[in-house]
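INTERNAL AUDIT FORM
Audit reference: QA-55
Scope: verify that the stored structure record matches its stored sequence.
Auditor: D.O.
Record contents follow.
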Amino acid sequence: MLVLERKSGESILIYPNEAIHPDMTVAELFSNGPIRVLVKAKGDSPVKLAIDAPMSMKILRHELIDG
């Protein structure tokens, strides 16, 4: 499980990693179950996201993507 802290307006990206064959179906990609995102918030502080996803998924903070 990955835990990230996000402020208002910030985002994350979740997509298959480079090792996944491009012809893989959505059913095959999620054969081990769905991606679970748990939001943990308290007051006005940044939100903590607890993400439970298969190792075949890449999860990045949006600001790390070039472009």
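Auditor finding: record pair retrieved intact. The longest strand covers residues 47-52.
Action required: none
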